[in-house]
Amino acid sequence: MQYNKQQQQTLFEQTHQLLAIDKTTLNTANLQPIVEKLHELIPYHEWRYYILNEPVISDFEYDELFALLKYIEEFFPAFAVQTLLLNVFLATLLKIFLQ
Count of domains in the chain? Predict the structure, then answer.
């Protein structure tokens, strides 16, 4: 898993956009792109943290991203992934280590 500088900058900016989301404004009409972005951002930040040991967001901010995904899956079950969040996390780590 490699990201060029432009991709990393974009992911960093998108992270802060998602962190600023007011959960009360979420609805089924605007969730699909948010969920897709969370599924892209969370593995990126795991890579920065666990593989590079160079996080670009705080632990709190990462927890907020993860909590947003969990909130969406809980209150909008149609957008829940087929696997548990923990399995997604473990699968991401496994992919990184197998590269």
Answer: 1
Contact criterion met (CB below 8 Å) for 55 and 45? yes
pLDDT at residue 44, as a whole number = 93
Instruction: State the CATH number of the domain containing residue 26.
Output: 1.10.287.610
pLDDT at 41 over 60: yes
What DSSP letter does each residue of 51-94 carry, written as one string?
ISS--SS-HHHHHHHHHHHHHHHHH-GGG--SS-HHHHHHHHHH
| Domain span at 81 | 5-98
- Phi, psi for 28 (deg, rounded to 5): -60, -25
